Queue: 2 jobs
Job 1
Amino acid sequence: MAELGSGPSPVAIRRLDTPESAPVFALSGELDLAGLATVRAALEPVLAPAVREVVFLCEELTFMDSSGLVLFLEIVDRGVSVTLRSPTPAVRNVIEATGLQQVVRMTP
Amino acid sequence: MTADTRHASGRPSAARRGGLHGAAIATLVIGLVVTGGLSWLTYVINQRNEDRLLALKVRELGAVFTTVLPDVQSPLASAALVASLTSGSATAFARDIGPDVGAGQLFVSASLWHLTASGAARVATVGAQSQLSPLSAQAQSFFRTAPLSPSISVIGLLAGGSPRLGYEYNTPHGRWAVVGESALPSQHLAPMSPTSPFADLTYALYLGRGTDAAHLLETSTRQLPLTGRTARDVIPFGGTHLTLVARPIGTLGGTLLGDLPWIIAGAGAALTALAVLTAGRLARRRVEAEGLAAENRDLYDEQREIAETLQESLLPRELPRIAGVDLAARYLPGAEGVDVGGDWYSAVAIDDERFAFVVGDVSGRGVRAASVMASLHYTTRAYISLGYAPHRVLEMAARELHVAIEGHFATALVGLADRVRGELTLASAGHLRPLLLTEECAEFVDVPVGVPLGMGPRTYQSTTVPLRARATLVAFTDGLVERRGETIEEGMARLRKCAASAGTAPIDAILTTIVTDLSTPASEDDVALLGMQWLN
């Protein structure tokens, strides 16, 4: 295997303190099925009915499989728009390959 | 299979039940041994203490008995002195010793004796008749050996109507001797006063060194000789000895000390019972926990097996035979110990000219994902077999799944091939683009990718590409190209390079090459591949 890392590093989610109206979360590590529950639990209290948009800073998210897509689709399905800021190629590829750029916005 | 596993998990727990009893029995044995040991130790300490206390008490009591000697000595010595001064005046003797003779006095009888070389003769008697006859062997033997010094001597028990103890005191020159006879208690019985410091003793006092019944002076019991725990003391007494034997009534060291072994035994037994119960309960709980773990393991295996069976049964055992097209497929389950995935594929012949196919992937894993996959599999299969355009199939399928309800979404690639027209129409709901191999090149078909299934009703687009002879299409799921540490683009580039090297080999050989090159033993995700090759 041509992998660089010695093993999967679990996903971490951290809320950033920004002046924006939408909550901003930094995602890092590898987002897979094992980490989905962690991220869901961190988001749940924030996703109040009044929230219309969530921003994810993805510059340190090195890997994402369909679990990440489930996460974003669930949020979008609640009528909340999802923006991925600075996605890594790994993330951008998954989004584009599955046609999700139509429902998830990606910004540099 | 279910019954077998249950049975298997039941058997070791029955075997462990022996361990349960073992733990309880071990606790019981240890508890009883410790309790017994402690009780025994306490008992031994208590016995030693009792022995020591008894010995002390007996010595004290013996000392009390000897205090009678000075009391007896002074009136006898006084009378002996008077007799010596008055040359044996009976009147003077009676006047001197009279106050100490009589019922309730020191002596019941007192007599003055004149000692000569030929023997001892009684000169005068005060009080009751003397029980020491001058001619008796006892008197002759005593006076022959009596010490010629002013000190009190014990003559011994005097036989007669009532038992008496005889004392003697003689003058320094050995001419006059005074004999005092003290009454012994009736039948030698002298119970201890309840207020006496020795009330907790049963005793017997003998004259001399032995405990012969004939030499008994007094006792507090009729049951002689004393048996059981006894102590003995031999005390010098007026030229002879007193032997005191005593036995405690109850315990001398207090009831608490005496009862302590029993208290310890009782408490130890209670604690042991408690420990046995606790050990039993703990062991039982462990057995239950182990049983539960085994059952969970069985259930988990069972669940995985059900999911695998479900998935295998859903995948076509045989691909349809379609004129002018060779079909081949592969399904690779993910790494062992992980739940089954939701990848699927199917192909259906619509009529002589057309056939349709679907390759799909339900997100997530487990039985739930497999059941979502089953539902989508049959829905799409029904739609494609009716000859709907691929984008219509996706639009209809999109209504079947909702990520918020099922917790899963799905990607799918639908294709419809028309042999007569030489066309292939494709539509994608979030699915990876298929790889098209021709004699010239290998490239991914540029299918407009729509939103994955699960986001409610959506619209999709179909795209149509021309088909040439020997063209090969490989549709696949993301497990084939998704790896940690690299992007999907990199994985897809690897796939394209590998497939291009396979060139125009038969479809089965191409799929084998791809699977061999791209899959790794550590692949977590399932992989489904469907390949089709147009022959002419």
Job 2
Amino acid sequence: MKESSAIPTEKNLFTPFNILAGIIVLMGLTITVLRFTKGLGAVSNLSDYNPWGIWIGFDLLVGVALAAGGYVTSAAVYIFGLKKYHFAVRPAVLTGFLGYLFVVIALTYDVGRPWRLPYPLLIQRGTTSLLFEVAGCVALYLTVLFLEFSPAALEWLGLKKARKLAVNLTIVLTIFGVILSTLHQSSLGALFLIAPSKLHPLWYSPYLPVYFFISSIIAGLSMVIFESSLSQRFFHHKMDKAHIEGKDQLVLGFGKAASVVLAGYFAIKVIGISAGNNWHLLSTPYGIWFLIELLGFVALPCLLYAIGVRERNLTLIKQTSFLAVFGIILNRLNVSLIAFNWHLPPEERYFPHWMEIGISLFIVTVGILVFRFIVTRMPIFYEHPDYPENH
Amino acid sequence: MIYTLQEYMTKTEGVTYILMILFIVAFILFWKFLTGRDEEMIDADHFSQEQNSAKEFHHHKQ
């Protein structure tokens, strides 16, 4: 695809999506001013009982899990040698990079005083703290993702020497990225190990770090399938031949991998119930909710992926990716919000303020807008004509 | 009935080990289900390729 064709020729700014996005951005900016001038109490329902709301439960935990497509795809292509999926690396890395970037931005809303964000790395005493480990890994991995994404931006800017340097770092960055992801994806689960009395026994487990890491692989694989089917619909005109022809193989391959990982995840979740001897809790209301998550959003997508791969039914695999992604979102919300503080009376339970939801919506919308800005300008879905099969 | 920690651990660990064995067996069956048609597909691909090359051969011969 020629570079000139990647630049939009018709500019109609007042599309329904742009108008809706504009309204959300204006609302988000207004709430942002309120948050940083009037404090947490003015815009959130957070309290001493519930210090972590949806800005942590959704923006951070879900955001990090769904951004796992970057390390999963890079590892598949550069470490496991599955070169046939090479075309999928750039979109996945871009999604991962933006995911982590907006996770960090969302975190500033929760912790406040953004200029103190580097404090865990510079001024602190808690090197044994999991939050220190998460902060270090996320900061480093965001840098890694930025460097992994940089060849596309440098091609767009025409900086050939800098691009060559960035491309030479690919393998080192991929290995570093996998190590960092393994560490912080599991550490996010480990954060809840400190609260065995607050988290419902069906979700609490000594294996929480393992659950979070394994489910992040499912989230990464499913997000790549989900995002590729959306991109095919909205950015089809930006894709080159390799991208269009390879998409079906990608959906089948990643669908098969997701099915296998989901099967393993289902097994270790059941083993978790057995190891904690929590069978009797399955008949309680929380138990039924747990079974809905386990059977409806782990076992069912596993089976549907398997049927889709067996029957070569791409539509079924794409639809299942949505179910699997929703399952991961539900799991993170269950652990951080729904099954957390489960013993408190209803009036003490947390429900997000509409302005908290507004900020989450604002961050997701800005993420989509930045993604659209980049893919309509930089060589993400096609190879730059000056660097054929060389990135 | 369970009265001691020893009995509790024996029961819990015992059930867990049985489950692990069942999952290993189930996983082999699941893998066979997942990849069951891969060989058929590969065979079908080879067959269609052979047919195409045979057609091309006859086409060139004529």
